[in-house]
């Protein structure tokens, strides 16, 4: 029997509105989906100590993380090895950032809230829209 104060790592997915993705639908759901939102894919593993550290930290600082305005996705790469291989992961957690169909970068490990926030701010300050096609006139 668990204590009412016991930490449930899966609860974090609901709090952040994380949508589960897998290797089969990743491009369709993350890369090719319309919108100019900044998308963060949380790649994690079941019973991964460092992944659970992030999950606990995320719940403690949920307001600050939610204020970043990210669209969140998640995948257990222990179950979906192909997705981990796609991004050449050597460890989890990892956070893949996408916007406008482009991979903007990866944050490996959980660097802490200040560093994560600063990385997101740098990505936000980048181009807000994809470049316009060149004129052929």
UniProtKB/TrEMBL annotation:
Gene3D superfamilies per UniProt: Glutaredoxin
- Protein name, per record: Thioredoxin
